[in-house]
Amino acid sequence: MSSAGDAVARLVREEYGRVLATLIRVTGSVVLAEDAAQDAMVRALETWPRDGLSDNPRAWLLVAAKRQAIDHIRREGRRADKEAAAMEHPVDDEPAEVVRDDLLRLVFTCCHPFLSLDAQVALALRTLGGLSTAEVARGLLVPEATMAKRLTRAKQKIAAAGIPYRVPAAEELPDRLDGVATTVYLIFNEGYADIGRAGVAAEALFAGPGAGRADARRADCAGPAVPEKKKKSPAALFFLVDGQPVLLADQDRTRWDGRAIKEGVELVGVALRRGPDNRYAVQAAIAACHALAPSYAETNWEAVVSWYDVLLTVHDTPVVRLNRAAAVAERDGPAAGLALVDGIADLESYPWWHASRAELLNRLGDKDAARAAFEKAVAAGINAPTAEHLRRRISG
Amino acid sequence: MTTYIALIYTPDMDFNQSGAAEMGAEYAEFGQAAAAVLRGGNALHSTATATTVRVSGGKGGDVLTTDGPYAETKEVLSGYYVLECADLEEAVKTAARIPAAWNGGAVEIRPVVTFA
To answer: For residues A273 and A48, what is the distance between their CA atoms, to the nearest angstrom?
Structure first.
């Protein structure tokens, strides 16, 4: 595809979640809105590269999607109240804050606790991220047929069981936000096979909460929002470049989005002031340390280790200890890191524990032990790109 | 007269799917034939739409929800009728006319408790 075509594809994808969110509110049907938004996307991809970009791409997409929705309704001869209402109140354009609220509604609906976590993650990637069912299936390592069934089931439940399409009331927010944060976390932890695309979903998830942070209610959303916003830029261990994973250490930091980082770091401040004991905010602070470092070598490991110490006071888990050990290894050398890693119990079945040992043993020059740890990491089920990367390092 | 509930167990189904109209006609026929003893009833959306609720820590405690039915089974509760019959024999005779009974499902009859 031409670079103009790429730009159009990116723009369309970025707008997809917003258009879909508004359309769901207007039509009252996730399925109908999805069909219509998909059709509008296809039309944009066909016409924009040829005729040039619309002045207001979002409005263009909304109008196109709404026309498609009306066509769908007419074709199927359905006249449900809400759907009919969509036809009587044409949506040409929506004020930015209305779109943000629509996106928030969609976030809270996709991440509703009445849906299983599996369903939440799949639905968020599908609707907010605009990934195809096949892409979601690949990203989450599930057969496509299974994923299609899972998505259908979730949408069916939203419609038939009546999961509300609204932003929760203030008193419900803390609980619900925790759920949203968990879902977004899973998107990153489970979905890193395609993290570049998953990032789109996270961005959509938090475009609403982040953008509205002046509003006290929305500011609550900033806490969980931050780590993911940051992760989209640099904090994830791996980033895909041409389909290949690139370690945080090896990433080309000039490709990071400076504006997103600046916005993210501000959000970290907001989140920490609001809830210094919010683990997502503390994790975001760690991500901020990475984001602000001009290079991996110049990372302020002292600060990173300190933030991990804070994190342990609010969220003490073996995995957090493992991450802290990795930071200590960078600050004090591989021997100090390895001693900490070896001191963590209960991670025998965790592939990253073995992978960390392999990496540190390799740095210490103990190739045999590194290879043994690597084999255990593979046996424990480390993902293929990481395995390949480690294999190259140890044999190199 | 005793009030019975006829619980209809079938493979999980989606009433929006094809074949639903045909099935609807069969049930409408039953509804007319059994009108004298029918006191109510409903079909249920598939278990995909189910939410199971528990409260931990006693009354007013934490509400825990699970996405899905109480038990994952091959046959699921997909509808019910409330019947008012003279005795169990009449209830069973009525249940035997519910289409699920010969369409790969089963109907469970339970008498309803009446509190004095």
So the answer is: 44
pLDDT score at A279: 74
Residues 6+ apart with CB under 8 A from A239: A195, A196, A245, A246, A248, A251
Contact predicate A173/A217, CB 8 Å: yes
CB contact under 8 A, B48 and A116: no
pLDDT surpasses 60 at A237: no
Rounded Cα gap, residues B66 and B51, in angstroms:
6
CA distance A106 to chain B (A): 18
Angle at A124 between CA A253 and CA A42, to 5 degrees: 85
**CATH assignment of A317-395?**
1.25.40
Chain A residue closest in CA terms to B14: A156
DSSP code string of A190-228? H-GGGHHHHHHHHHHHHHHHHHTTTSHHHHHHHHHHHHH
Count of beta carbons in the 10 Å neighbourhood of residue A183: 27
Partners of B51 on chain A (C-beta within 8 Å) are 114, 157, 161
ipTM: 0.76
CA distance B78 to A112: 25
**Both tokens of residue A310?**
């804070």
Residue A36 contacts residue A68 (beta carbons within 8 Å) = yes
- Domains observed in chain B: 2-111 (3.30.70.1060)
Nearest to B65, CA basis, from B48, B55, B47, B52: B52
Cβ contacts (< 8 Å) between B45 and chain A: which residues? 156, 160-161
Q: CA–CA distance from B22 to each of A311, B18, B19, B25, B101 (Å)?
A: 60, 9, 5, 5, 16
Report the alpha-carbon distance of residue A361 to residue A394 in Å, rounded: 9
Which of A110, A120, A146, A153 would you mutate first to test chain B, the one with the most B CBs within 10 A?
Answer: A153
Contacts of B68 in chain A (CB under 8 A): 116
Q: pLDDT for A246-301, tens place per residue?
A: 566 776 777 666 766 776 677 777 777 777 777 777 877 887 787 788 888 888 99
Q: How far apart are CA A354 and CA A338, in angstroms?
A: 11
Chain B hits for A116, Cβ within 8 Å: 66-68
DSSP state of A1: -
pLDDT at A312 over 60: yes
pLDDT tens by residue, A83-117: 555 555 555 667 777 777 787 788 888 888 889 88
Round the average pLDDT of chain A to a whole number and report it: 75
